[in-house]
Amino acid sequence: MANSRQYTDEELIQRVWDVEEIKKLIHKRVIYITNEMRKEELNDLWVQDPNHQKTASFGRNTGYYTGMDAIRDYYVVHHQKEREEQLKQLHAANPAIADVPQNLHIGCLSSHPVSTGLVELAGDGKTAKGLWYAIAQETEAQPDGTGKALWMPEKIAVDFVKEEDGWKIWHIVVSTDLVSEAGEDYSEQEVYHNYETNPVDVEFGTPTIAKLIHNTDFNWWDNYPPMPEAYETFSDAVSYGPEGYVRPALYGLDSKEGRNFR
Amino acid sequence: MGKTYSTEELVSRWEDQRYMKNLMGKYANCMILNREHEIFDRFWSKKTENLCLSFNDGAYKGAEAIRAYYEAEYRRNDLVAHLLQKRFPEKLGSLSDEELYGIGPFKVKPMSCPIIEIAEDHQTAKGLWYCQGAYNKVEGCGPVARWTWGYFAVDFTYEDDAWKIFNLMYVNDVDCICGQSWGKEEKPYPPLPEFQPLEEFKYPEYSVKKTIRPLYAPDRVLTKAPEIPVPYRTFAETFSYGIS
């Protein structure tokens, strides 16, 4: 349902500009990720208001981290430890790669460029919702001297809230549709997702709320995260946080039916 | 937070951003159409000195050098088309030079994720785009498709009621044969004698020959993207995408 409010010219222009600023914010996140600026991303692009920080969330296929402390532990601290361990392994295999801070992230390349932007600004102008698609890839150096390059196409759904110094990321869901090594035929992958070995799931660890929210076995039939629709004011019902998750009526293998399953 | 603008100013600045997005869209289309030789006259500043066009391994400085680069692209496109005409005489043999031009290379450079900042004084602007591109070119081994992922980073100047480029940096992280892993050693295709003249083709020497951005390799240290534009008052108070 379209927004039926009547706006003044000034309000309309402000709404147009707000959508531009929201797109710019998510585009900056693309560059921050490439630059391995995860800590800075949380400081610069995410909510700073304490009340928003308490309810912030970061979702992936297997659940949500909630609250900025838990998000930081997963997204920054755990990631840093993984990269330090990776560097130790590279150094052990090839002592020419020194185990020094400036070599952290050596051989790593993460690109999650977004397209197909779909932004809905709340009627009250205080929050917004956006959905993008990214043909993403992540590459990491291996001890054998090669790089393991993984395609990981994904939907990125975001709730934004306007704080004193502008628009901020409040809730995010990065739902990965596929992980496949570059140069390999992804149609040869096993049909059923292996949560024990899938690198995205392994990296995500055990979130605050652990539950399967995007089942990739049968494409997008769970419709999560859903497309944003026009809305007047933010509520749990429209949130990309865990409170907004609705279990689909037809849920994966439980249902024994679905768009691509007979 | 930058300066606060009036409604009229916001409208104007929104239109400016749209202009620059369209300009880069046209730039990408010129590449797809193999019309690089039109790019300088259409999109580059005619009133700014020290123009700069840079790539991963060097930079062209000044109008003359930049124009010469685009003209070299035209000559290479022309050479490719004529080599293909020789290789496929039944299909292409009867075409005139004009009809033939453009056959072969297919350079797709879709630009996404724009981050644009317009100076408070409205004399300049800066833009950064991500480009998940492909470069389907003809080399000494014949046709080869390559993934090219990187960035377009551009400084614009406002002259004669239009935005024009005065620094453009196009640098990639990945430049590898499609279907192969960019994390592993490239498996090149064997050379084909009919396309050997392309091996001898030379672009003009760079004005500044240096590694501006190394391509991804498993031993590459963290290499940050071109700097993100931030709000600024005048160009003198911000950084430049030009290479010195």
UniProtKB/TrEMBL annotation, chain A:
Domain SnoaL-like: 14-171
Domain of life: Bacteria
A Pfam family per the record: SnoaL_4
The protein's name: SnoaL-like domain-containing protein
Organism per entry: Coprococcus catus GD/7
Lineage: Bacteria, Bacillati, Bacillota, Clostridia, Lachnospirales
TrEMBL record, chain B:
Gene3D superfamilies noted in UniProt: 3.10.450.50
SUPFAM superfamilies xref list: NTF2-like (SSF54427)
Record protein name field: Uncharacterized protein
Organism from which the protein derives: Coprococcus catus
